[in-house]
Amino acid sequence: MKTSTQGFTGLHVLLATSAFFAVVIAVNATMAFYAASSWSGIVVENTYVASQEFNTRAAAMKAMAASGVEGALVVKGIQIRYDIHDKAGTPAIIDDVTLNFKRPVGDHEDFRVTLRKTGEGRFEADHQVVAGDWIVEAISRMNGAVVMHEAKRFDTAEFRQ
Fold this sequence. Notes:
This protein is of the alpha+beta class. The protein contains 2 helices and 7 strands. A hairpin with a 2-residue loop joins β6 and β7 (145-155). This is Cation transporter.
């Protein structure tokens, strides 16, 4: 019987190095995929200013949530409808509503729509909303003062029938 005494050869080094880099590349590709497909998309112009305003905005949002005013968004075809009501369920007294549609990742399809009032607490507009995930920021005002400011994430598939 003859036994090999070569030990660890250049071929072994090449295979071990290749396997190492294959694992590194696979992990990086997986992480990049998950980052691109699951990131919330929240972007601010100036992170320092946003951090300074955070507590003030958080307090305002808590006060709005405590008021009980809520909005409901419906997107059907090109029709966008936003109904807003108080905690008793009666239509809220609002002058105007603006919706900012934002994609979770990227801003090339983002748009803003000012809705027309069609009844007390009901606002509508016609605008094409491309299929997919959206974050909609709704800003409702009465006499120029913000009454409700909320953001909701939805998929257009939620409104298909």
